Amino acid sequence: MEENMKALESKFVKKILIVKAMKRLSIKDVARLSGVNHVTMSKILSGERTIVHQSTFDKLNDWLSKED
């Protein structure tokens, strides 16, 4: 794996899905709020993409920390 890449743990993705459901957000909403491309977000949530750039992980992690 490249140095600037990060493997997503299933519990991290599950946390995104829980917040998405609780706030009744669409994939595009989550993408817009987190700053992640909506196609990338869709692939992450479907499990198609399990390794992302560190910057993508950081955006999602920052968004999740604000949503808690």
UniProtKB/TrEMBL annotation:
Recorded superkingdom: Bacteria
InterPro entries in the record: Lambda_DNA-bd_dom_sf (IPR010982)
Molecular function in Gene Ontology: DNA binding
SUPFAM superfamilies: lambda repressor-like DNA-binding domains
Origin organism lineage: Bacteria, Bacillati, Bacillota, Bacilli, Lactobacillales
Protein name: Uncharacterized protein
